[in-house]
Amino acid sequence: MPTAAPRLQLPQRDQPRTGEPAPDPAPATIRALTGLRALAALWVVAFHYRFDVVTLVPGLGPLRGLMAAGYLGVDVFFALSGFVLAYNYADRLAQWNLGRARSFVQNRVARVWPVHAVTLHLDLVQAAVVGTLGVAADGHRRTLSAYLQNLTMTHGWWSDRPSFNAPAWSISAEWAAYLASPLLMLALARVRRPGSAALGVLALYVAMLVAFALWALPNGNVPHAGMLRVGVEFTAGVLLLRVYQRRPRWLSHLALPLVAVIVVAVMAVPALRHGYWLAPALGLLVLLVALDEGPVGWALSTRAAVFWGEASYALYMSHLLLSRGLHALVDPRDVVSSPLPVRLLVLILYAGALAAAAVLLRRLVEVPARRRLRHGRALAQRREPERNLALG
What we know:
- The protein is 65% helix and 2% strand.
- It is mainly α.
- The protein has one domain (8-388).
- It has a two-stranded antiparallel ribbon.
- Helix 1 (31-48) packs across helix 15, helix 4 (73-89) crosses helix 10 (225-245) and helix 5 (98-130) crosses helix 18 (340-373).
C-alpha cells in the first residue's frame, strides 16, 4: 500500500492576488487522525460514565476494563497534538521568527480558549446553583484564585487538584506545550535522522515510566503528573513527525495489530490499565494511524468518524458538565430493575444529550469564536487544517 507523504496543495480560494506574496501551502489533512480524535474522546467519556453504562446494561461488563482505562485517551490527545502541530508548522517555525511564533500562539488561543471559557462559566453557574463553590472534600477547587488561573489556562501549572470544569486540566497542560512549541520546532529542525528521532521518543517514554515507577502515589499518579505527561508525550509527538517523513514501508501494516494488542491488554491485564504503561503504544498508534491506509485508516477516515473528530473537543469539554443534570433526570440506579428496553432508552438518552451538547457547543461557540479571534496575517492567509488538531 502506498506510503508517500500527502502532497502539499494550495487551495484555489487561497491563491494570492497579483503583487501579494504567496501564502505557505497547507499540508493535506490526514483524515484518519481526525477520526482518532473521536475515538480518544469517546474513550474518555466511557471512562467517566462507565458505572452508568454497566449499571444500565450489565451485559457490557466485559468492557469494564477497557472503559476503566479511558483516562489514557488524554495521552492519545497529547501525542496527537504534538504530531499534528509539527506536521502543520515544523517547516514554518524551523527558524526563529518572533512574528510567526506570536501568530502561532495567538491561533492556539483562538482554537482552545473560547470553549474553555464558556464551559468554565457553565461550571461556575452550576456550582453556584447547587452550592459547591469553594474547595470540596476531594480537593476540587472552585475558588477565586482558581477562577483567575482558569481564565489564563494556567490552573494546572500550580496544582494537581482539579478546578471548575475538571477536564480542563489537560487544556492547561496543552497550553504550556503550545507556548513551548516554537522552541520544539526549532529543535526538531536539527533532528535530521528518523533513527535519532525514534531514540528520542523512546528515551522520553522510558524517563516518564521510570518516574511513575519510582514516585507513584496511591492513586497511580506522581506529583504534577499532567505536566509530566504532556511534556513527554507532546514532545514525542513532535519527534514522531521525523519518523513519519522517513518511515519504512512495513510500518504501515502494524496499525490493526497494535489496536488489537492495546484492547486485549487493557481488558486482560489490570496492571496495565492502572498506570501509564500503555502510553508508548498510544504514541506509536498516532504514528501508525497517520501512515495506515488499511482497515484502521479506512474506519477512522469515514464521514462519521471525521464529523465526531471535529466535535471531539466540544464533547470532551462538555461531557462532565452534563453528568449532574442527567443523573437528576434519570439516575441509572433507579431503573436498574427495569426491563432491558427501558434501560437501553436511558442509555440512548445519555448518549443523545452528550452528542447534542457537543454539536451545539462546536457550532455556536467553537467555530465562530475561532474565526473571530484568529490573528496574524501570515497564518490567517493559509488554510489551517483544523480537523487534525487534537484537544486544540
